[in-house]
């Protein structure tokens, strides 16, 4: 049976460790509610925002600043809300695909028109080296 510690609203268990009211209810098998500030997370709004921010190449800390939350809260939201985490991953994948396509285009060369004349951009040796190092280690 927990013992009441006078004046602090906490109980102690048999080992002398303090327990808060929610811990007492959990230990007794009862239903408890968490106290504290309600979350600012909105499943209808936040995944769309972070998808667009990630697509612009923004860092996690930058996205947290835009959402006006701390970085720790941002990572907690990723853990607690799978749709939030998936939106970030999808947003970050888009610019990576675009850069890969541009690098490939430089590596193989391409034709373009300039001033009404047809021009050829020959393959770039540095782009070929970088692409091969990245694709086949």
Structure in a nutshell:
The chain is mostly helical and 137 residues long. The protein has helices at 21-27, 46-55, 60-66, 71-80, 82-108, 125-135, and strands spanning 3-4, 11-12, 18-19, 110-114, 117-121. The longest helix has 27 residues, at 82-108.
Please describe the structure with a list of short key phrases separated by commas or semicolons.
137 residues, mainly alpha, 2 domains, 6 helices
Provide a descriptive summary of the structure in words.
By secondary structure, the protein is mainly α. The protein has 2 domains: 1-36, no CATH class; 37-135, no CATH class. The protein is 53% helix and 12% strand. It is built from 6 helices and 5 strands, in the order βββαααααββα. The protein has helices at residues 21-27, 46-55, 60-66, 71-80, 82-108, 125-135, and strands at residues 3-4, 11-12, 18-19, 110-114, 117-121. It has a 3-stranded antiparallel sheet with strand order 1-2-3. Helix 2 packs parallel to helix 5 (82-108), helix 3 (60-66) crosses helix 4 and helix 5 (82-108) packs across helix 6. The termini are far apart.
